[in-house]
Design goal:
This protein is α+β, with helices and mostly antiparallel strands. It has four helices and twelve strands. Helix 1 (about 5-15) crosses helix 2.
Length: about 240
């Protein structure tokens, strides 16, 4: 068991629920530092990444990595986090947790793959890279239970339900679901409506082509159960 997996297990007992993604980020960073006082830790450290849009155009982006851990030998461990919640109001240890309704699971599935891509990209451009991690913690069963591939949703190729193999090849958004009477594929290889407004999957960070270096087997594990609300997590270790 490595330092990050140890911190996740310890937090299951110490902090079974969080107010927000920032709350989770701080709790993990604090726990890592407590157990490894010799480590250096940086939050939201920006790095330059080269991304490729689906129309083939490259773009340099400034992307903050949620947590970067550095050990005494100079090796670095970048960590990307996601905390996706369903609406809930939970009292735990005399502290009230009012969780937001994040929704937008289609964009959430895509952003999980994007986090993996970003860690792989960081790995390729940093000689002192040791391991990287992508963690998602959620009480939204749409992520760990629903196989959207079977439902032929627009995000079918980004499903990361329990037991699936996340394919290294980015098969793109499922544009067969678009209403072709409302959207056209223009000369720039972008889907737009009749007013030339880009479909949301063709704009900004949703338009990156995210081919990965390998396939990833997705496994969800129990994190906590509080007032009949179940939290599960998925951890990807990128070596």
């Amino acid at each position: 068991m490595d330092f990050f997996e140890k911190s996740i297990i310890e937090l299951q007992n110490q902090r079974p629920i969080f107010h927000s993604e920032d709350d989770l980020k701080l709790a993990l960073a604090f726990n890592i530092k407590k157990n490894n006082p010799e480590f250096e830790i940086r939050l939201e450290r920006p790095v330059q990444l080269e991304m490729i849009n689906r129309n083939g155009k490259g773009i340099a982006v400034r992307a903050p990595i949620d947590i970067i851990v550095m050990d005494t030998s100079g090796d670095s461990y970048p960590i990307e986090l996601k905390y996706k919640t369903r609406k809930a109001n939970i009292l735990h240890n005399n502290e009230n947790y009012i969780l937001a309704e994040h929704g937008a699971q289609d964009a959430g599935r895509y952003s999980f793959r994007k986090d993996i891509y970003r860690i792989e990209n960081y790995k390729s451009s940093n000689l002192n890279y040791k391991y990287g991690y992508v963690l998602i913690l959620t009480n939204d069963n749409a992520y760990f239970e629903k196989n959207v591939f079977k439902k032929d949703n627009i995000d079918k190729h980004f499903s990361f339900h329990n037991g699936v193999i996340l394919n290294r090849s980015d098969l793109s958004w499922n544009y067969s679901k678009l209403d072709k009477s409302r959207f056209i594929f223009n000369e720039n290889k972008v889907w737009c409506n009749i007013k030339s407004k880009e479909h949301w999957t063709c704009s900004k960070e949703n338009f990156y082509k995210l081919d990965l270096l390998k396939d990833y087997e997705i496994t969800w594990k129990d994190f906590s159960v509080i007032e009949k609300t179940t939290f599960k997590y998925c951890l990807i270790k990128i070596g």
